[in-house]
Design goal:
One of its GO terms (molecular function) is transmembrane transporter activity. By secondary structure, this protein is mainly alpha-helical. The chain is 68% helix and 5% strand. The protein folds into 2 domains: 494 residues, Amino acid/polyamine transporter I, CATH 1.20.1740; 148 residues, no CATH class.
């Protein structure tokens, strides 16, 4: 019997996730490829029924997401860090914003920046309105669809994942967001089902975007004269080029490929936008931006809650645009949310929400104004309606629009480049996320797995593109947004439960039996206050005061049949007493040598003796749950013992309460 090659034998795939996901992906691909018409018809009827009868579910879900996040911004929970209290962001602010933006909707801005405003402007539903009102409403509805509501959907998933992953040390997967509800059952079948759903949703979302977007790229290359016609053979070559670069970028890691391409995207997009702004109707665009933002803010609540129940003639447009957008953003949220969470460790909740909601929204408003309002202005004043005549040809519309500007060949080339790179960034971050889901967030995976996901994406996209099954796949993805909107509401509930416990756990005071040291040794403490502490001073304190105290305590614990150990490290010196447990967190009380920077104004003060420079050292405590420590340089040996007992009493009190299991229960972190 032949054996698998060594590189294939080494895999980090989770069987409970990868096997059902691949079976479902292959089944849907088969049905959509061989029965595209009948599948599209059935799924289309289901989608229409959902949009007509259950559109209020999407409306209320998205509304709750927006107000839930805004409430967190102004609450006391906004200052909580996504990680340990001393965690710092892994990426610079610019890199972070570039990556979350490019993964979120970068390619959509290229595809819809001209076509959507023109579509609203020319839609027969609003034919009775004046030309000016139709132009204003086109901008307003575009802002609505690409504004805070869209990013709130991504924000809920991203924040929930980042919080439970970095705050509670759970796996970076959707199952972790259900821990307050499911507890340890997230490690079983329920967790596998949740992650499989996320994996399939991500795969199908990227596949449909890749398939439809390739058609626009094909049209752009024809416009530039680089290829003679639109055809499947050229689309195969485009897909292969995109996936080859995407695979290379994904295997290079987030810190290299994804980060570099995301920043390149933003720079190139801003360059193209500034060119259109400067060479287009600049004064009109800047004025309309101001009016558009004002209209958006003024009608925010009306837009949010309006279902057009009293306007049946408007509802078909409403289902075709607003409800479809909410469903599309929800269906994409597992993928985008996972990627945003991956790059957001160390941010505070307030910083995360403000950045995710406002910065991309502000850029979207500027982008859509420059391109969309330029298009409607040109159509009304220069093109004599020729742009609205081809509004249904979305693939070609952007390039026809650019023909009205100077250096159209150059700008079209830049647009093609942007579309191409946006596709690459969506695909490479998608490959990275899918591998993370399918491996249950394994620390390291062989690169062949990333390559395999890239190849599978390319093959499925080409098969469905050739067979005409992409529409069916897109419709099915939109249908799955309905149940996932309910899942996201449960995310909000779980996140709120986690935050409540978080606040209680970290603000828990000592019990009445725990008191601070008295003034019995006040002269000795005063002498220590007035002395300069260098590293050797603190190490001597640890050796002569802390170590004997911990050793004496450990001896007493062991005599009580509580297995306890004291471990010591050098350079810099630290010592810790640890009581190891099986089903709850270990209790650790340690003291380390910590560098402390002193204010220069204190150094210059003549009435404070003993200060010799801007750097000093202190003996600082640390604990097993990563709470901030404190200075114990004035403690005596007996007071160190008392302090450990206070912390141990607090630890037992917290561990005895059922609601604190989310922090104290360690069984969920064990590998299956």
């Amino acid at each position: 019997m032949s054996r698998l090659p060594s590189f294939l034998a080494q895999t980090t795939f989770h069987k409970g996730i990868i096997l059902p996901s691949l079976l479902f992906i292959f089944f849907v691909t088969f049905v959509s490829s061989f029965f595209p018409d009948s599948t599209a018809s059935i799924l289309g009827q289901i989608q229409d029924w959902i949009f007509i009868n259950l559109n209020w579910v999407y409306v209320w879900s998205v509304t709750l997401f927006v107000f839930f996040l805004l409430a967190l911004v102004v609450s006391k929970y906004g200052s909580i860090t996504l990680g340990d209290d001393d965690a710092v962001p892994e990426y610079s602010f610019l890199s972070w914003i570039s990556m979350l933006f490019a993964a979120g909707m970068g390619i959509g801005l290229m595809y819809f920046s001209v076509s959507e405003p023109l579509a609203h402007f020319s839609d027969p539903t609003f034919a009775e309105y004046s030309e000016i009102k139709r132009a204003k409403d086109a901008q307003l509805y575009t802002f609505f669809h690409w504004g805070i509501h869209a990013w709130a959907i991504y924000g809920v998933v991203g924040l929930s994942l980042a919080y439970f992953t970095y705050r509670y040390k759970l796996p970076l997967s959707l199952r972790s967001c259900f821990y307050p509800i499911l507890k340890n059952r997230i490690n079983g079948v329920a967790g596998n089902v949740i992650d499989s759903f996320a994996l399939c949703s991500t795969f199908f979302g990227i596949t449909t975007t890749l398939g439809f977007g390739v058609v626009q790229l094909n049209a752009g290359l024809v416009e530039l004269g680089l290829i003679p016609e639109k055809g499947f053979s050229y689309q195969v070559a485009i897909v292969m080029a995109i996936m080859a670069i995407s695979i290379f970028s994904a295997t290079s890691g987030v810190n290299k490929g994804v980060k570099f391409l995301s920043q390149l995207n933003i720079f190139s997009a801003v360059l193209l936008m500034l060119f259109i702004l400067i060479t287009g109707p600049t004064v009109f665009l800047l004025g309309s931006l101001s009016e558009g933002v004002g209209d958006y803010l003024n009608q925010f609540l009306s837009l949010t809650f309006n279902t057009h129940a009293y306007e049946p003639s408007v509802q078909p447009w409403y289902f075709r645009w607003t409800i479809l957008y909410w469903a599309w953003w929800i269906s994409w949220s597992p993928y985008v949310g996972l990627f945003i969470a991956q790059i957001s460790k160390g941010r505070t909740i307030r910083e995360f929400i403000i950045a995710v909601l406002l910065i991309p929204t502000a850029f979207n408003f500027l982008w859509m104004t420059v391109f969309g309002n330029s298009a409607t202005w040109l159509d009304r004043n220069v093109a004599n309606g020729s742009l609205t005549d081809i509004v249904s040809k979305t693939d070609e519309l952007l390039f026809q629009f650019l023909n009205y500007f100077p250096a159209s060949g150059l700008t079209s080339s830049l647009a093609v480049f942007l579309i191409f790179v946006f596709f690459v960034t969506s695909a490479d971050s998608g490959i990275f996320v899918m591998n993370s889901i399918s491996t249950a967030n394994a620390a390291r995976s062989p690169k062949w797995q990333l390559v395999a996901w890239g190849i599978l994406l390319a093959l499925v996209a080409l098969v469905l593109l050739n067979a005409g099954g992409l529409q069916s796949l897109q419709t099915m993805t939109l249908i799955t947004a309905l149940p996932f909107s309910i899942v996201m509401l449960l995310f909000c509930y779980s996140l709120l439960q986690g935050l409540l416990v978080d606040s209680y756990y970290y603000s828990k005071a000592f019990s009445p039996s725990a008191r601070n040291w008295s003034g019995e040794f006040w002269k000795q403490r005063l002498q220590r206050i007035l002395s300069f502490k260098d590293q050797s001073y603190v190490e001597t304190f640890i050796q002569q005061t802390v170590e004997p105290a911990l050793q004496e305590l450990a001896s007493e614990f062991n005599s009580q049949r509580i297995s306890t150990a004291v471990r010591k490290k050098e350079n810099p010196m630290e010592i810790a007493l640890t009581i190891e447990h099986e089903s709850i967190e270990n209790f650790t009380y340690g003291v380390r040598t910590q560098l402390k920077t002193i204010s220069t104004s204190l150094v210059a003060e003549k009435n404070i003796p003993g200060v010799r420079g801007t750097q000093s050292y202190i003996p600082e405590t640390f604990f097993g749950d990563n709470r901030p420590g404190y200075n114990i340089e004035y403690f005596t040996e007996k007071e160190v013992i008392a302090d450990v007992l206070k912390q141990y009493e607090r630890f037992l009190e917290l561990s005895s309460e059922i609601k604190n299991e989310i922090f104290t229960d360690t069984t969920l972190r064990r590998k299956e």
